[in-house]
Write a structure and sequence with these properties.
There is one protein chain. By secondary structure, this protein is an alpha/beta fold. It folds into two domains: about 170 residues, Peroxisomal Thiolase, Chain A, domain 1, CATH 3.40.47; about 140 residues, Peroxisomal Thiolase, Chain A, domain 1, CATH 3.40.47. The protein is about 30% helix and about 25% strand. The strands form four sheets. A five-stranded mixed β-sheet has the order 1-7-6-4-5, sandwiched between helices. Strands 8-13-12-11 form a four-stranded mixed β-sheet, with helices on both faces. Helix 8 crosses helix 9.
Length: about 325
């Protein structure tokens, strides 16, 4: 019997900075309130990095936990893909600094698709493993969003926090006849970009534009409308390609941007709320880190078990968006 390989997700880890900021803390220096924020977003807390804490520091902490939870060591990693909007430096890649911190020798680079970055990075990692660029890939989402917030703009500054999450993807041969036709790991991913909506979510600065990082700017009403439609449609595309329906999913882990968006997608695709992992209340919108953060929290709680079928989805600036479906764990 010939063996074949599958791309399995075998480890997950996350990190949140120690500085935890409540809505009441924001009231002290902003024209806002706990009630206003919770009603419109579902957010109660967010975490902020210290002045000397970098995106690479958070990414390294999450990566170490993911590697450990996969039963591996840093030297086993062949490929590191970091999704981030807030790199330590314009160049080199922050992934290369994480590689140095871990002490491994791996192909390492950054991916920039803002909040959709983790879905993009998973898709790239799967493709590279299939294309023989190693057998073990570390995918990280890490962002220090507090560094690009305008505290005079309460419509955006109350939404975001800092954090990191990471997963390990492994290319493994499947030789057990009972699982040969039973797909595990990443089953399908669909990613999209439409630059017509470039200005809906962006920063007002950039290296070639004005030599500045700039502050985050967002058209919230338009983003909400696009998010609900595009997250729903990309998820349904994935289900169709897998010959599944919404009832086949054990869990949906959406990008943790706004609880109202999460609820609207739930209603549109008709998935029960008790099948949705939502952790936004504790950390806000952490951009590319939000999905692996939520995945790690649910895994630690014992909600997600080996063999569960998960759907992940996200949308970010660009506009960039996508979904993927995976069967988590290891069949052997």
């Amino acid at each position: 019997m010939n063996s074949k390989f599958q791309i399995l997700l075998t480890g997950v880890g996350s990190y949140l900075p120690k500085k935890k900021i409540s809505n009441n803390d924001l009231e002290k220096f902003m024209d806002t309130s706990d009630e206003w924020i919770r009603k419109r977003t579902g957010i109660k807390f967010r975490h902020f990095v210290e002045d000397n804490e970098l995106t690479s520091d958070m990414g390294t902490n999450a990566a170490e936990l993911a590697i450990f939870n996969a039963g591996l060591k840093p030297k086993d990693i062949d490929l590191i893909i970091l999704a981030t909007t807030t790199p330590d430096n314009t160049f080199p890649s922050t992934a290369s600094k994480i590689q140095r911190n871990l002490g491994c020798k791996a192909i390492s680079f950054d991916v920039q698709a803002v909040c959709a970055g983790f879905i993009y990075a998973i898709s790239i990692g799967v493709a590279m493993l299939k294309d023989t660029h190693g057998k073990k890939c570390l995918v990280i989402g890490a962002d220090s969003m507090s560094k690009i917030l305008d505290w005079n703009d309460r419509s955006t500054s109350v939404l975001f926090g800092d954090g990191a999450g990471a997963v390990v993807l492994e290319k493994k041969n499947v030789i057990n006849k009972t699982v040969e036709n039973n797909q595990w790991g990443v089953l399908v991913s669909k990613i999209f970009t439409n630059g017509e909506y470039y200005d809906l979510l962006s920063t007002d600065g950039g290296v070639s534009k004005n030599k500045s990082t700039g502050f985050l700017r967002m058209n919230g009403k338009e983003i909400f409308k696009h998010a609900v439609e595009k997250l729903s449609s990309s998820l349904l595309m994935c289900l169709e390609e897998c010959n599944m329906n919404i009832n086949d999913l054990d869990w949906l882990i959406p990008h943790q941007a706004n609880q109202r968006i999460i609820n609207a997608v739930s209603n549109k695709v008709k998935i029960p709320q008790d099948k949705i992992i939502s952790t936004i209340s504790n950390h806000g919108n952490t951009s590319a880190a939000s999905i692996p953060l939520a995945l790690d929290v649910a895994t630690k709680k014992g909600n997600i078990k080996n063999g569960d079928i998960l759907a992940l989805q996200a949308i970010g600036g660009g506009l960039s968006w996508g979904s993927l479906i995976l069967k988590i764990g290891n069949p052997n």
